[in-house]
Specification:
heterotrimer; A alpha/beta (346); B mainly alpha (308); C alpha/beta (333); A: 346 residues; alpha/beta; eight-stranded mixed β-sheet; four-stranded antiparallel β-sheet; 11 helices; 12 strands; 34% helix; globular; B: 308 residues; mainly alpha; MetI-like fold
Chain lengths: 346, 308, 333
């Protein structure tokens, strides 16, 4: 049985521009011990989705339908106090801008002990032991517990926040952009720590990020979000090696890699749609070089494409052919003049 | 500057000026729509403005004129009647007419002083915040001095020294009230100065003056207007106090002057409510309306203040 | 050899921190050493990448070149002329030749100006264009060049109406309006979404080539620098630790710091093996600059000499490296 099962979840925001459908009909499941990466660009709904899962949506947001089943219980139908009980104890969150989530006027250790005592019904002494143990686990010297947040570097703060999330040994950790604000080397090492922790504790991870390489280095599975929907999902290897949705294909060519041989990058022309007025058909149609008339009219559903991989595209069955054409097709759609200019020798 | 440049810069400046006025009025409309109190405030001011403009038409008598009874006696201390809706003063002047004309003084002092506060405060804030260093130090120490002096006594002394003239009252008000605006604008400029688009203006070659007035100023004006609108209330109140204490312009009928008149002629003792209550209520309404508007405006500028 | 377009010689920038009241009572003014002697040349038509982590001094370097800050010491020469004392018309002339693309497109345009108004500004300041109409045409041309077509549709828009990618295109178009010779771009795409990054990068590459521009890209992202630049300089704690052709510096890094930096970049390809970076993640502070090599505290290959003698840049196999591990002729400035 899956640890977390999200079924047809939809979330709307009431804004001055009207109703924004930030998350549309999203379903996925996360088996115990796996790590799922939820990738997408800003505004694709990934953070809204994460906040909906732990019930901390802003006031103008509303879950219009769907279920979030955690260990078989639908969290959305729980009374507030019981839902509250699940947070921290069963589902922990490493929030975006985690470094700011530490109280600046309290020692890091005191904050941790406080959390453990409050949520975990432990004595202070036991909680203090636990805190030291957790600090060691995330690669921080336990004497750092005596420091105030401003005395820690960005990477250390991030580690402290991760330690705090793990304090009550939750089976599921949701991490929203856990390494985004960090420098490359620190990022690398925090990722290493997260990998080690997953192995040591067997904790399940839902990682939310815009950075494909972070998913590649940390996750088993990936779900690609676009305009509030999951457009493709599968194991990381499947999706990166053999993408079946044109958006995923486009992303592969759209950002520079340090190691791959790249003649030049191919952008995805255009911008995501305005979710206050989502288009009738597939939301990616306007930016898709492979769009057919059907795409403008009918929104494709996420369908299994064999081997556990799923894609929401009317032409997913042609994926092997489209993949070969993708770079050229996206470049043509972008009207990119550079593609004709030969790259000068460096 | 060549003619060609003039043709280009002038229209853009005009359109910019026009757009900031349109902005300001548009903002006022938004404030009115969002906040009932602010709407009430705006209505009160619109009413006072209409009264001030139309007072020669609306007022049944010249407010300075002495009225006489048919018998030739001065029509002093009459109770309200059809011909004198609020009665007359001890010198036989029509109180209702005085009240209507009083709105002119109040609005003039309030708005001109507020305008002065906006201009002086914004200038000081811009210059201090933008240049920093000793310029900032000197200007902010001046602001400290302005904060330090006891407000009403200082205003009275200055008015007495400069002469009891309504324009001097306005000048004194401006000199004493710019400090809040100056401080706030300086703080705002300090943070704006670090913004990319201000650095961008420098990289594009804009001079210091141009950066300050063309690039930074439009971004601080909303804040200046907020503090300016607060100054309206203060200025009206202070003018009333100065006049009540007898240091005001004797040739201008203001609500404070009316109160002083009433007080001196023992209207309180004679329970002539029709004399001293109306100007009191008007002062209160005008001051309150000013604060209502600034509060609505403030909530628009700083949405976090809004009740949750 | 031609005279370099830009010469940066032994540039230093220190800030004095005005600590709280306690600091001023107990003495001890703290000095931030943002730049500690940076030297490099940029030739006409070259594209130089300044790489490094936050706090390494790369943005400070850019701001000094743009004359947004004053150096503590050292010199910057543009086309042979020292820029430190430029004033009035000379400064205006310099500003016309050196333009900047900002990191945050959402903040680089005045929120109270329409796009047209913002783009007319440089033309008005520099007196470019014979008539108002001509200026508007120039703006339209520039917008078309950055693929904002039709330009009229953008004239009356305010910055908050545009997406990040569109804003960054406007910023690029505005920089090109004055026909500069040197373009400095500070993290030009770091705030943009992945799918629109490539468009902006390709656009910049294309435009700078077409206009024969010399460029300096500043980024923490080595992949971006590899894509955009012919030469790469890696900075650490206010100094350059390695500089040379991009292929060498990123392909075969010599300085232990560059090696760590290259190894730490995560890979989008899950099939590539994870690399292990064996340096401490304690970020150094520019408040206390060590006497010897600034990287000594974190360096896995540290030697005794590293803690006492600061290594100078030496020519090693076609690149220049500041590291005691390598022997070579020392540079003289």
């Amino acid at each position: 049985m899956a640890l977390l099962d999200v079924e047809r979840l939809s979330v709307e925001y009431q804004t001055l521009q009207g109703t924004v459908r930030a998350v549309r009909d999203v379903s996925f499941s996360l088996p115990p011990g796996r790590a799922l990466g939820l990738v997408g660009e800003s505004g694709c709904g990934k953070t809204t989705l994460a906040r909906a899962l732990i019930g901390v949506l802003p006031r103008n947001a509303r879950i219009t339908e769907g279920a979030v089943r955690f260990e078989g219980t639908d969290l959305l139908r729980l009374p507030a106090d019981q839902f509250n009980d699940y947070r921290w104890r069963r589902i922990a969150m490493v929030p975006q801008a985690a470094m700011d989530s530490l109280d600046p006027v309290q020692r890091v250790g005191d904050q941790m002990v406080e959390t453990i005592v409050l949520r975990g019904n432990l004595t202070r002494a036991a909680a203090a032991d636990r805190a030291r143990e957790l600090f060691a686990m995330v690669g921080l010297q336990p004497d750092r517990l005596r420091l105030y947040p401003h005395e820690l570097s960005g990477g250390m703060k991030q580690r402290a926040v991760i330690a705090m999330a793990l304090a009550l040994r939750p089976p599921l950790v949701i991490a929203d952009e856990p390494v985004t604000a960090l420098d490359v080397i620190v990022q690398h090492q925090v990722l290493q720590t997260l990998r080690d922790l997953r192995e040591a504790l067997g904790v399940s991870l839902l990682l939310i990020t815009h950075d494909i390489s972070v998913v590649a280095s940390l996750c088993d599975d990936v779900a690609v979000m676009y305009a509030g929907r999951i457009v493709e999902s599968g194991t990381v290897r499947q999706v990166f090696a053999e993408p079946r949705h044109p958006y995923t294909m486009g992303l592969r060519n759209a950002f520079p890699s340090l190691r791959a041989e790249q003649e030049h990058l191919v952008p995805i022309e255009g911008y995501p749609p305005d979710l206050a007025h989502p288009p009738q058909g597939c939301a990616f149609t306007a930016r898709c070089p492979f769009a057919i008339p059907r795409c403008w009219e009918e929104d494709p559903v996420l369908r299994a494409e064999g081997d556990g991989q799923e894609a929401a595209c009317h032409r997913a069955h042609e994926a092997p052919v489209l993949r070969v054409q993708a770079a050229e097709a996206f470049a043509r759609l972008a009207g990119d003049e550079i593609r004709s200019a030969p790259r000068e020798a460096c | 500057m060549s003619d060609a440049e003039r043709t280009l810069t002038l229209p853009t400046r005009w359109s910019q000026a026009a757009s900031s006025w349109r902005d300001a009025l548009g903002t006022l409309a938004v404030v009115a729509r969002r906040d009932r109190f602010a709407l009430v405030g705006i209505i009160i001011y619109v009413a006072f403005f209409a009264i001030a403009l139309l007072s020669p038409v609306l007022a049944p008598y010249n407010p300075q004129e002495l009225n006489y009874l048919p018998g030739g006696d001065v029509a002093a201390n009459l109770p309200p009647s059809l011909s004198h809706p609020m009665g007359t003063t001890n010198l036989g002047r029509d109180i209702f007419s005085q009240l209507l004309y009083g709105s002119r003084a109040a609005l003039m002092v309030g708005f001109v002083a507020a305008l002065g506060v906006v201009i002086l405060g914004t200038l000081v804030g811009l210059v201090a915040g933008y240049y920093g260093g000793w310029v900032d130090t000197v200007l902010m120490r001046l602001a400290d001095v302005a904060f330090g002096v006891p407000f009403l006594p200082m205003a009275i002394v200055l008015v007495a020294f400069l002469g009891p003239n309504i324009w001097n009252v306005v000048l004194v008000m401006t000199l004493l009230l710019w400090r809040d605006t100056g401080r706030i604008i300086r703080a705002q400029v300090l943070s704006l100065r670090e913004r990319s688009y201000i650095e961008a203006a420098r990289v594009l070659g804009a001079s210091h003056t141009r950066t300050m007035f063309v690039h930074i100023a439009p971004n601080v004006l909303p804040l200046s207007f907020l503090y300016g609108s607060l100054a309206i209330g203060w200025a009206i109140l202070t003018e009333a106090s100065i006049s009540f204490l007898g240091f005001g312009d004797p040739n201008v009928i203001s609500w404070g002057f009316m109160l002083q008149d009433a007080y001196n002629s023992q209207a309180l003792a004679r329970q002539a409510f029709h004399w001293f209550v109306p100007p009191g209520v008007c002062i209160m309404l005008a001051v309150m309306a000013g604060f209502f508007i600034s509060r609505g405006y403030e909530e628009l500028l700083f949405p976090r203040l809004r009740r949750r | 050899m031609l005279m370099p377009m830009l010469e940066v010689a032994n540039l230093q920038k220190h800030y004095t921190l005005h600590g709280g009241m306690m600091a001023s009572v107990f003495g001890g003014r703290r000095v931030v050493h943002a730049l500690n002697g940076v030297s490099f040349n940029v030739e006409q038509g070259q594209s130089l990448g300044l790489a490094g982590e936050s706090g390494c001094g790369k943005t400070t370097t850019a701001k000094l070149i743009l004359k947004l800050l004053r150096p503590t010491s050292g010199a910057i020469r543009f086309a042979g002329r020292d820029i430190s004392d430029l004033e009035g018309a000379d400064l205006l002339g310099y500003r016309r030749q050196v333009q900047f693309v900002f990191q945050n497109p959402y903040e680089a345009l005045n929120p109270r100006f329409t796009i047209l108004r913002a783009m007319l500004e440089p033309l008005v300041i520099h007196g470019i264009g014979a008539s108002a109409l001509n200026r508007v045409e120039r703006v339209a041309d520039a917008l078309r060049q950055v693929h904002l077509d039709p330009p009229e549709a953008f004239f009356m828009k305010y910055p908050h109406h545009l997406s990040g990618g569109q804003l960054q295109r406007v910023v690029i178009a505005r920089a090109l309006l004055v026909e500069p010779r040197l373009l400095v771009a500070d993290e030009p795409v770091s705030m943009l979404d992945v799918s629109v990054r490539a468009g902006v990068l390709n656009l910049m590459r294309d435009l700078t080539r077409r206009h024969g521009l010399t460029t300096i890209y500043i980024s923490h992202d080595l992949a971006l620098i590899r894509y955009m630049c012919t030469t790469t300089a890696v900075m650490y704690l206010g100094t350059i630790c390695e500089i040379g052709s991009t292929a060498e510096v990123i392909g075969r890094p010599k300085h232990p710091y560059t090696q760590a930096l290259v190894a730490a970049v995560p890979d989008p390809d899950p099939t590539r093996a994870e690399r292990v970076v064996k340096i401490s993640d304690t970020v150094p502070t520019p408040l206390h600059i060590p006497v010897g090599c600034p990287f000594a505290d974190r360096c896995p290959m540290v030697m005794d000499i590293c803690r006492t003698v600061r290594p100078a840049l030496r020519a090693i196999e076609g690149v220049r490296v500041a590291c005691h591990l390598y022997e070579g002729p020392e540079e003289v400035h």
